[in-house]
């Protein structure tokens, strides 16, 4: 009997290795090794054309303390623009699909139709979405300018540039969270909701006291993943506003790409330092969010 159990355990371990092994190899090759090498490069001076030269913390000292350095300005203004983008898009990418999911659950006939309408934008690449809205918002030939008779270059005038970036991003991103919330809310025990309605509970009270506590794990998942996604913003400001007006929407990833692969002599070491700071910021913000969400569960 014991030999049979050991044989089954070995087989289970073998199957687990076969299934997990390829993913673990890909994770190490295409994520872990590049991340570790990127952190190493951040402590070097490297132009991509020669061997990295170790310089210690000089890149970080210049980024944080050298106010005359263009890289310092890129970090300050680029991170500020990134944080502004995250601050507005993350709550909207959580709340809009959450309330939309609650409304769609009451629509039996048209639910699938509206699910598809909300989800279809997320199937397109960011480049395709931004090209469409660049055309729609163009001052020269955009149809929206003609329809509303607005003589404003939306993508190059503040605050319209930020408003356009946020709204287009939310429209593009909410589909995936919507599907998750619909599935989560559909799994809430119906008898609890019916009992609350009999007791005279309002829709807001049902949402706050019954539905939200039952979908805490999906909420945590979507909040963390949405935060990470929005911190990595790049395509939207690059293609819609090109960082304008006056670099006010130029996010940090645009500067990182410019320093590593742009015109002139590449500063890959400095770009890696900026990327490392951005990655550390994402980890810290995500950890704070996770801590707050766990405290709210108690």
Automatic annotation (TrEMBL):
<keyword id="KW-0813">Transport</keyword>
<dbReference type="InterPro" id="IPR035906">
    <property type="entry name" value="MetI-like_sf"/>
</dbReference>
<keyword id="KW-1003">Cell membrane</keyword>
<feature type="transmembrane region" description="Helical">
    <location>
        <begin position="160"/>
        <end position="188"/>
    </location>
</feature>
<feature type="transmembrane region" description="Helical">
    <location>
        <begin position="215"/>
        <end position="234"/>
    </location>
</feature>
<feature type="transmembrane region" description="Helical">
    <location>
        <begin position="83"/>
        <end position="105"/>
    </location>
</feature>
<dbReference type="Pfam" id="PF00528">
    <property type="entry name" value="BPD_transp_1"/>
</dbReference>
<keyword id="KW-1133">Transmembrane helix</keyword>
<feature type="transmembrane region" description="Helical">
    <location>
        <begin position="271"/>
        <end position="293"/>
    </location>
</feature>
<dbReference type="GO" id="GO:0055085">
    <property type="term" value="P:transmembrane transport"/>
</dbReference>
<keyword id="KW-0472">Membrane</keyword>
<comment type="similarity">
    <text>Belongs to the binding-protein-dependent transport system permease family.</text>
</comment>
<dbReference type="GO" id="GO:0005886">
    <property type="term" value="C:plasma membrane"/>
</dbReference>
<feature type="transmembrane region" description="Helical">
    <location>
        <begin position="12"/>
        <end position="40"/>
    </location>
</feature>
<dbReference type="InterPro" id="IPR000515">
    <property type="entry name" value="MetI-like"/>
</dbReference>
<dbReference type="InterPro" id="IPR051393">
    <property type="entry name" value="ABC_transporter_permease"/>
</dbReference>
<feature type="transmembrane region" description="Helical">
    <location>
        <begin position="117"/>
        <end position="137"/>
    </location>
</feature>
<feature type="domain" description="ABC transmembrane type-1">
    <location>
        <begin position="79"/>
        <end position="289"/>
    </location>
</feature>
<keyword id="KW-0812">Transmembrane</keyword>
<protein>
    <submittedName>
        <fullName>Sugar ABC transporter permease</fullName>
    </submittedName>
</protein>
């Amino acid at each position: 009997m014991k030999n049979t159990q050991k044989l089954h355990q070995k087989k289970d371990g073998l199957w687990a290795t076969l299934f997990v092994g390829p993913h673990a190899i890909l994770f190490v090759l295409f994520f872990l090794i590049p991340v570790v090498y990127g952190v190493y490069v951040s402590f070097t001076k490297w132009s991509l054309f020669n061997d990295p030269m170790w310089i210690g913390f000089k890149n970080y000292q210049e980024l944080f303390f050298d106010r005359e350095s263009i890289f310092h300005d890129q970090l300050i203004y680029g991170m500020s623009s990134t944080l502004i983008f995250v601050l507005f898009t993350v709550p909207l990418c959580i709340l809009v699909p959450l309330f939309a999911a609650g409304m769609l659950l009451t629509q039996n006939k048209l639910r699938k139709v509206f699910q598809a309408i909300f989800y279809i934008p997320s199937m397109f690449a960011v480049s395709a979405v931004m090209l469409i809205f660049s055309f729609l918002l163009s001052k020269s030939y955009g149809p929206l300018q003609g329809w509303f008779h607005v003589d404003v270059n939306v993508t190059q005038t503040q605050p319209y540039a930020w408003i356009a970036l946020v709204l287009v991003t939310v429209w593009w991103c909410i589909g995936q969270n919507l599907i998750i919330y619909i599935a989560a809310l559909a799994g809430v025990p119906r008898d609890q909701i019916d009992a609350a309605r009999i007791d005279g509970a309002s829709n807001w009270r049902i949402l706050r006291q019954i539905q939200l506590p039952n979908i805490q794990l999906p909420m945590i998942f979507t909040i963390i993943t949405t935060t990470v996604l929005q911190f990595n913003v790049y395509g939207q400001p690059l293609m819609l506003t090109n960082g304008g007006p006056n670099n006010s929407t130029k996010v940090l990833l645009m500067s990182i790409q410019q320093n590593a692969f742009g015109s002139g002599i590449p500063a890959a070491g400095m770009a890696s330092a900026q990327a490392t700071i951005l990655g550390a910021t994402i980890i810290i913000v995500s950890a704070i969010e996770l801590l707050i969400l766990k405290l709210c569960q108690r």
